[in-house]
User: Which sequence fits this backbone?
């Protein structure tokens, strides 16, 4: 079962879809999420969010000023600023 991922900025939804892996930068360091990951609530640090879609395609976004929440194979990343770069 894939992760359901939602990356939103203060004014728009940046990316939503299913992923097999997401790596994000928090104030504690980088953290990777795969299906079945335990629940997490963390403060987002400025940096890249790297998403590997279930198809294998990669999405890279810059994000800063926010938080991320992982629960029940649903990952939500809320950033003050976020934009797709690749």
Assistant:
């Amino acid at each position: 079962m894939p992760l359901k991922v939602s990356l939103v900025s203060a004014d728009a939804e940046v990316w939503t879809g299913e992923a097999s892996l997401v790596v994000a930068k928090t104030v504690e360091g980088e953290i990777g999420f795969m299906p079945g990951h335990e629940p997490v609530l963390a403060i987002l640090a400025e940096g890249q969010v790297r998403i590997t879609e279930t198809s294998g395609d990669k999405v890279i976004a810059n994000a800063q000023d926010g938080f991320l929440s992982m629960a029940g194979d649903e990952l939500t990343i809320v950033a003050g600023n976020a934009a797709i770069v690749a």
